[in-house]
Amino acid sequence: MGSISTHVLDLPLLKSQPSFETIRKSLESLTLPPSTWSSTPAVPPVEAENTPLTSRYLTAILKNPFDWLFSHPQGMSVDEQRDILHDLASQRLTERCGRSAQGEMSRTWTLPATSNHESAVDIVIREPSLTGDDLGLKTWGTAWAMAQILPRLRTDYLSHLFPEAPSPTRGKQDGAGGCGSETKGGTPPPPAILELGSGTGLLGLSATLTLHAPVLLTDLPTILPNLHHNIALNTPLLASHSASAHAEPLDWSAVHTGAAPQVPLIVVSDPLYSPDHPRLVGRAISVHLLPDPSSRVLLAVPLRDAATRALLLDLRGRLRLHGFELLGAGEEICRDDWAASRGHGRDDEEIRCWWGVWRWQSERWKFAV
Ligand SMILES: C[S@@+](CC[C@H](N)C(=O)[O-])C[C@H]1O[C@@H](n2cnc3c(N)ncnc32)[C@H](O)[C@@H]1O
């Protein structure tokens, strides 16, 4: 991957008819790595300042027939060289146009070392190119914000369910996870954690790595192939951390009483974007949470706009009606890379997300559906 230190004024002038190799190297030097919203800015200031000029330069490359090129010493025809240059320019442009314009990408999300895992762990997540309404093919900022505070939430709200940080080998000996993932074959261990609307699986995979308990990732059937892929990508990591994950379809609109599984912890991040969602999510939680006073729900919702805030209020009211009470809540900064660049480098929009930990109200768990 090229460096991003190239200033647009240092790029070769096309009217000077530079060679194929010179243009190719310049285009590679303009590569922007995928953002993971870490503390290091994904777009260094020099690039941010240059984006409109850089985009103009890239567009000029796309329009250029490169009629001064001649056959490459390695046997590439002029047409092949032109195609390579046009492809590179088009990739560099889409990197500057927001997530929705980009093709498939893989990002590495690094959970820092904690008492739950002694060294930092790198979770690799594939995001296919976005098609139609499949919002679950992208990783959303709330999932990453929650993944990072899981160790704190475990200490404050979940230590009775997940009391200790086992050594990486403990799960393998006693069967409490540690057997990797579904890709190893055999029956998956019963889940202790259920994630609803997992999307690409970042939060659920972080949960099994932090809490050392088996997780079941769920979403709509169209999202499942990518979830299976992401579990397989992380199988060696899970196996070495007493973690295990598998994935199944679970449509909130098809949830019914008596549906398996019931678990002591449900995690849900960014599930509300249609008027039906508060009702469907509230019901799915009440059906799948184990009817026990120790059970917990971690719900996180980004406060994007008035509409999302209204959906969250609706869901909070419904959770109370289902018999839940709020045990603790907070807000975190999260970022999304959905928007297109507005001329200031890539636009990783910063917003707040609300999270709450819920439990059954006193005695109400006995009457759960
Ligand atoms: C905005 S995305 C969030 C994905 C993931 N939780 C994250 O934060 O990155 C919303 C997710 O809810 C899923 N979803 C929407 N309607 C659903 C339904 N009826 N049943 C199950 N999942 C649904 C979508 O497929 C998508 O994965």
TrEMBL record:
GO cellular component: cytosol
Pfam name, any one: Methyltransf_16
InterPro entries assigned to the protein according to its UniProt record, in alphabetical order: Methyltransf_16, SAM-dependent_MTases_sf
Region (Disordered): 164-188
GO molecular function: S-adenosylmethionine-dependent methyltransferase activity
Gene3D superfamilies in alphabetical order: Vaccinia Virus protein VP39
PANTHER family for the chain: HEPATOCELLULAR CARCINOMA-ASSOCIATED ANTIGEN, PROTEIN-LYSINE N-METHYLTRANSFERASE EFM2
Record-given protein name: Glucose-inducible SAM-dependent methyltransferase Rrg1
Species per Swiss-Prot/TrEMBL record: Amylocarpus encephaloides
